[in-house]
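Blinded run. Sample ID left blank on purpose so nobody reads anything into the name before looking at the predicted structure. Input follows.
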Amino acid sequence: MVTTSVEDALDRLRRQDTAPPEPGSTLSIAEMAERTGVTAHTLRYYERIGLLDRVARDASGYRAYSAGDYGRVVFLTRLRMTGMPIRELLRYVELAGAGEATVDERLEMLLAHRESVRRQLAELQFALDTIDFKIASYGGSCVP
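Blinded prediction complete.
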């Protein structure tokens, strides 16, 4: 069984923040997948359902992801990581596409989702404390 430490997972996420393409340059679908951790299949799916605007193509017809595309994929990935359903992501993207008039509604969506994530974190911490208690009762160490 392959496991990654919490620090490894956080390092992977932090690397996303330093990996967007340079201004004026683009990434191939393979490079985008590598840098974001999102599979090429998922990138094509996001484009097909409208989470990503139609991605530009290079002279050979291959997808050419911009820094803006990169930023959106990272943002969507992090929202998905927190359990936001695709239908809510689609609504958010639709509102964002409608412009400044929807800022208040987008803010409300994010505030509500943040509260949901905070509740989940509290529940998970409670469950983790229970696991730590059981580990300690078996004589194990609760220090990672």
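Unblinding after everyone has recorded impressions. The radius of gyration is 19 Å.
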